[in-house]
Specification:
Beta-lactamase; 12 helices; 16% strand; 14 strands; alpha+beta; 363 residues
Length: 363
């Protein structure tokens, strides 16, 4: 019993020291900025878990940011959308090599068919961003509309129409990588069609998020507590809190979450607790090559990138979110910058946290 107590004490002290170190790194990364940063780190065996926050949830009121507060995760939602489509595949509802013409609504097919041959574009290609869709969010009119009227209520149909009217196809289906929210907005429609629910409800049903304890991962307007915990996020100095969530609500983005539940979801995914068949995760993570090198090593709702010295599977979101899994370390990390970060494809605080872990290991 005494030996067990010493082991527990050593484990407790190690975690306490790490927590202090991580808090220092977080405060250092914040610097003189007021917009907050939140971080969560979790080991795959659950022997270590840490969450921290620094700065303000609202610069105007100087409300301090807490680790459990939620934020718009933007494109990180694509990981959940991709996983949901793969669950529909497992259920036999669709095949990844089905042409999208087989599944999309007639009204939306009529719009998209003006620029694209939907019989030649497959679900697999859309998941991998290789379908050749122009990204409607790249149209100048998209952000012009948001900045002129932040409360504008968008529809999926409107975004498809903008993508066709304001841009041209990137190239032949399957021949190149070109990141496109438009494709994932199509996938969002499929989830709604085959679950008979809105996108929030459809994803939660297919992935069993609530059954797995993810209580603060919701689309805006779906859970009052999740909404109340939402922080202010900033873009080029503007407070975007009142921007309509419909700008990014149909599959390219949409979820609110916090860093704690982001690492929880990635852990569930990589530990085989989301899919019925272990091979489905292999399909999701299959490496893709193109004749012309892709700008991202993107799979399905996930991409590979180096953080420090380690290869990771990750996804990031427009407002300043990143979540990652490091297979070599069996470690899950998530960060959110309330005003984004600059100069790097990777959240700088995650690089610093990994360096801190390595330093503690050496000491």
């Amino acid at each position: 019993m005494k030996k067990l107590s010493f082991v527990f004490l050593g484990f407790f002290l190690l975690n306490f020291i790490n927590a202090q170190d991580f808090s220092s790194v977080l405060e250092s990364e914040l610097g003189d900025n007021k917009a907050g940063i939140s971080v969560s780190i979790q080991s795959g065996d659950d022997s270590f878990s840490w969450s921290g926050a620094a700065g303000f949830a609202d610069i105007k009121t100087e409300e301090k940011l807490k680790p459990n507060q939620t934020f718009r995760i933007a494109s990180v939602t694509k990981t959940y959308v991709a996983a949901s489509i793969l669950r529909l595949m497992e259920l036999g509802v669709l095949n990844l090599d089905d042409p999208i013409s087989k599944h999309i609504s007639a009204a939306h097919a009529a719009i998209l068919s003006k620029d694209y041959n939907l019989d030649e574009i497959t679900i697999r290609q859309i998941l991998r961003h290789s379908a050749g869709f122009f990204d409607h969010t790249h149209a100048a009119e998209f952000f012009d509309t948001i900045l002129k009227d932040p409360s504008h209520t968008w529809t999926r149909t409107e975004q498809f129409q903008m993508g066709v009217d304001k841009g041209d196809p990137i190239g032949p289906p399957g021949k190149q990588f070109s990141y496109s929210d438009t494709g994932y907005v199509i996938l969002g429609e499929l989830i709604e069609k085959y679950t008979g629910k809105n996108l929030d409800g459809g994803i939660k049903e297919l992935l069993k998020l609530e059954e797995k304890g993810l209580e603060r991962t919701d689309f805006e307007g779906e859970d009052p507590i999740t909404d109340q915990l939402r922080i202010h996020q900033y873009f080029q100095g503007m407070d975007t809190y009142q921007f309509s969530p419909t700008m990014d609500y149909f599959g390219g983005g949409g979820f609110l979450s916090n860093t704690e539940e982001l690492v929880d979801f990635f852990q569930l995914l990589f530990q085989g607790k989301i899919f019925d068949d272990p091979k489905t995760l292999d399909i999701m993570l299959e490496h893709v090559t193109y004749e012309n090198k892709a700008t991202m090593d993107y799979q399905m709702g996930m991409y590979r990138v180096k953080i420090g010295d380690y290869e990771t599977y990750c996804h990031s979101g427009f407002w300043g979110t990143m979540v990652a899994f490091i297979p070599e370390k069996d470690m899950y990390l998530a960060a959110n910058y309330s005003s984004g970060w600059k100069g790097s494809a990777v959240a700088p605080v995650l690089v610093k946290m990994i360096k801190e872990m390595e330093k503690d290991k050496m000491e």
